[in-house]
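Can you give me the bound-state structure? Components:
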Amino acid sequence: MSQNKRYWSGLDELHGTEEFKAIQGQEFPGVQSVDEFLSDDRLESTHTGRRDFLKFMGFSLTAATLAACETPVIKSIPYTNKPEEVTPGVANYYASTFYNGQDYGQVLVKTREGRPIFIKSNALTGEGKVGVRVNASVMGLYDSARLNGPRKGGQPTDWATIDADVQGALAAGGRKVVLTHTVVSPSLNRAISLFCAATGAEHIQYDAISYSGMRKANLADYGRDVVPTYALDQTEAIVTIGADFLGTWGDVAVQTTAWSKGRQPENGKMSSLHAFESVMTLTGSNADRRNMIKPSEAGRVALALLNGLTGGGNSGDLSESAAAGIAPAVAALKAAGSKGLVVAGSNDPNVQLIVNACNRALGAYGTTVDLENAWVLGRGNDEAFAALVADMAAGKVGTLLIHGVNPAYTSTAFATALGKVKASISTSLFADETASRCTHIAPDHHWLESWGDAQRTTKRVDWVQPTISPLFDSRAAGSSLLTWAGNPETDWYTFLRQTWNPNYTADQLYTDAAWNSSLHDGFMALESEGFPVSFEGAGSGLAAAKQAVMATKGGAFELAFYQKNTIGQGDQTANPMLQETPDPLTKITWDNYVTMAKSDMDAMGLNTYIGQEKPASVVRVTVGGQSVEMPAVLLPGQKPGTMGIALGYGRGANGEEVGRAAFQMAENGDFLRDANSALVPVGTNAFPLLGSASGLPQYEQLNVTVEATGATYALASTQVHSTDMGRDSIVKETTFGSYFAERKAAKGSASWNKLIRIGVHEDVNGDGVINAQDSKPTAAFDLWHEHPVEEVGHRWGMTIDLTTCTGCSACVTACHIENNVPVVGKDEVRRHRDMHWMRIDRFFASDYSLERGEEEGVGAIGSYRRMEDPAENPQTVHMPMMCQHCNHAPCETVCPVAATTHSNEGLNQMTYNRCIGTRYCANNCPYKVRRFNWFNYPGYKKFMNFNPSQDNLTRMVLNPDVTVRSRGVMEKCSMCVQRIQEGKLNAKKAGTKVPDGAVVTACAEACPTNAIQFGDLNDKQSHVAAVSENNRAYHALEEIGVQPNIFYMTKVRNTESTEA
Amino acid sequence: MQREAAIREPLILGNKSYKDITDDVVGPIQGPAPIGWKIMITISAIIAVYGVGSILYLLGTGIGVWGLNKTVGWSWDITNFVWWVGIGHAGTLISAVLLLFRQKWRMAINRSAEAMTIFAVIMAATFPGIHMGRIWVSYWVLPLPNQFGSLWVNFNSPLLWDVFAISTYFSVSLVFWYIGLIPDFATIRDRMVKPLPKKIYGILAFGWSGRAKHWTRFEEVSLVLAGIATPLVFSVHSIVSMDFATSVIPGWHTTIFPPYFVSGAVFSGFAMVQTLLLIMRKGMKLENYIHVKHVEYMNIVIIVTGSIVGVAYLTELFISWYSGVEYESYAFINRFSGPYSWSYWIMMTCNVISPQLFWFKKIRRSLIATFILSIVVNIGMWFERYVIIVTSIHRDYNPSSWGEFHPSSMDLGIFIGTLGIFFTLFLGFARFFPVLALNELKTILKSSGEAYKKQHDNH
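Here's the bound-state model for the whole set.
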């Protein structure tokens, strides 16, 4: 039967009809050509009736209307000729160097389709990682407030006019000055020298933040007018007197990394850090012992240390909290010997002379203090600047070129005197405080558009290379100088090459292999001759310095000026991402304020709790004749009787175009206007309040008055609760002594990291009775089936070491920029609606506990109330917190539409397209890491002035690999799933397994201390798998049993001696 | 015919005949609208329009117009949802459970209680809808076949259970209510003179002719539906409570929630029935049908459920301490002593202390006291949900994320707006629908009517 089977394509074939036979031979049966169709006679006889016509019309109209309802199509223009190195979708990285007069960093710039979108450290230098201010600086490139061309008298002009005017001015009389920040570029220095030689101008360097006091002390002691570099990885004990070396003082990027290398408890020893400071800084919060001092005591603390080290002597009066810290600090320094280090942030040469004496007493020179390879930064000359301002005011200055500094912001006298200069030319990118008062503006390129070279120390030169064509009609500052000097070579790139190779000609543009490879690396090692340091004259000024610091007395209230880790000296005040990154200690965004101690605030009746609807009390601080009114904020650890104000705020106080995010917004998104309908800047400029001693700015005022005004001012904080309420399963911490004693303990058994077990009603230990001893670890309890991720494929995970996390927030901005996290502005942050995927929880320790409450008979309610208040001088924990990617995720079970699910690689994934926005997942998250799109951030008016996605230019900074979320969906940390995907694809192309370290999240990449590690927990060879097995590793809130893929490492404080 | 003990108070006062009952109920529908009704519906409609406007603004702008934040992701929205669902409990309880228990006194109140249920459930269902970030894709919560691949709803999620629970409850309540209305619509139809209303009521009456067969079927269907509806009374609020009980949040993660929520719902539902009926009986002159005895019965239900709720509150407190879990015990310490303790104490006063006043017979039988206390109870029940939701999540596990909730004008506008919509619907019901189950009432006239009882006594 089977052989008789027949198949046919239709009944026609089966029956062999005539029609079938007719078409059988044709390849395309039934197809009529257009010609045939048109030549059909019958066509003419057909007609379309009125009704049919109307039907077709109606249909067409409806169809067209419906088609028009489609999402608008945005056409992208393909490359006509594809650039060789640009593949759409694949990122290119270029080594470059960031320098803004304060921060310095060797970086890699990630570009996509020719747009720089991300900045990370250049690992080849092996020197440390750039911090929060540097990696957020990419936003500045796309600031729409940047000048689009040269200006003359505030009006646009052309470069020829600028050049003619400047050359004319230079030909006229008067003093000619080039005023810059500390120039770290050898080429720019050469150009300035050529310019000065050609025009008779002088070069004055001026920095917003002065290091003159230290340089003067080093000049007096060692004949070297420099700031030394410090080998913090070599130190065993550091004592800092107000020097925030992990936040804003000195070479932060390098110092932070180096410091963390000495803070690994696994090494069996840890360096110790003692801090004496008035305002709690990042460094103080990371200190093993922090002592509160008044600013006027800084010198006497140094003296007491010196006396302690050298054996006695009078140190003058010290307050109790300062005096108590001396003996432990001295003991630590003595134990460390030449591996000890004393640093001070004071700009008073007398204090620095005593600090130098301390370091000499320790023998720290050559081990932890390096004067020979000094820091190239911080060379501003305050006396020369003061003389310049005097000459300007007297009308003696004919031509003033200003590059890289904004002295009209930092010096009121300069701003006034600037008007008397006949020709003033700024190379600023913005019409900022200084540039807008200049007669001409010749805008420089942004550093991401520039060629250049830079030096941090004399051992190495780093290259600055452009990553994008100049966006505006700007010109390299060096090129401008060379043009005005009448130099034959005005091309900046050629000039740069000639600095390093005098024989360079344009023929070698591409052929110099050595240059190409060093440019690829980003730097070139230099033969450093090293400057010998003479110790012969050291200590000659010590006696006078001792007299001076003994005589320093403060008034009832003293004021210390500090910089925030996020804003720094203030050149990036208009960077909305930095403004929204909370201060690591107060957690307040978008403002500066007066920090005060609780006792002082209570005495004045000020509000000490900043809540959503609980604004700060405004106080009036009077310094000399000047008053400012600012909100007061309680900062635990503030020495009673002192206050602190952050510098760097209040940019654009006269409406200068420094960038839109520098100004305050009203609730509807318009700019806030004061009574005179002028723009209101974010924060208050504290530079005019700075003290001064023998011509040097002093970052303290020793006699100020403060009074309550009765007014209030809303502040926006991302964390309104300060303490951890005794919940020790969130943050586990121990002392180095206890750690050391149990350093070999198995994971989960050490007294400081006990595995949490839950009692069960079964005889687990087999002793025949069911009692409180029968318990199981939380991992034994499963409500749902285990996710099949253990040992199968990848399981992405992370470890976060609380010991080395300094709270610097570099991870916060890196995450922000990598994942297009919306900037939501002050009003929304105040409403607890910040969108940070990665945040740093800051917990201050409380004096109180339930146990103490029991002892004192206070009861649970009273104890909890007291536990809400931090101690007067608390220990601090910085805890990075993001989605924990729980294997038993509470968010996943409650989503009605399965928009958040578990991937088979251990990721808790959020599918934006599927999310309907019930917010149940966020409510059910024990870590509260989920963030909801309350508004359409990329489109709603409230966010128009600061949200990057609402500005046509700033939008270019968005990462094309990450969706910009729309309104009504939940979002959260994805563990940079786009990077995981890229890493997997690369491995697939290479035909290998994903190598350890090939995929790294933005936060882990940015972490300067490598506290955050990312990798595949299933890859037993991976670093992260090893760390997760360390006996310090634990899960936060382990008892809930959600089994996260993120491990925290118990914080170890070096508060006991290592001999324990 | 069934006789009732003389000692029982009559349920229908006065010397009523069957015709009187029909006249009393249908009369207001036939007559012109009273001025009081016009004023009330105008006010309600204005508030309703304001509420609709607020909702549209919310939908147009985003959930951010509410006071919610990263810590407190639900507040007034879900408070209002649970509150309205709770109110929507009394109707079905009265008509279904009391029907099964042969409680004749329910007949005077079941019609309006059911209407209240329907409207309250509509109001309740509004909130899960508008609280979604993307309401335009809200249909994704339904397990519909779709073109998204094998994309299905998450049956583990209590929110999905909610969808089923609420929709089932709503449809069964609606059908039950409507079935009961059919004979009464027929009565109205028969008395209508104007053609258009006659036509409309004719359609609504589904061709009811009053034949014995119709009545038999009517009784059977009622009984079957009562049987179906009875478990729903318990399931709906149990499932709503699981929105909280199945979470990990201290203060939510509580096994006591299902019974506690159900009794709370009955508690608030009866209070709302009292509020509405005390107005309606006055406005529509139904004093003979809904009188002190009915009010007293309902007050007894309120004492019982209120006491259950009170015991539940205390049990929660005890267990939080007894469990020894620090998060759990803090959650409850924070409830009564933290920043939102004022709402806890409002809840305790309104829900636990105030209903105990009904132990006094004078208060229990006082219409004014009942009216005031019924409102107090509903305020208390609103705060109960607010306390559970806000005080639990504003300070949960991680103190770094502890925060506050401050309602915005839109929170207020939408809540007030739903009250406006609710009263507009209810006033419409009172004007055009038979507010008493008149045909059912007629069945007890001879057993429980005052005049007839007196006759029996005289015999």
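A couple of observations. Chain A touches chain B through 63 residues (CB under 8 Å). The two ends of chain A are 95 Å apart (CA to CA).
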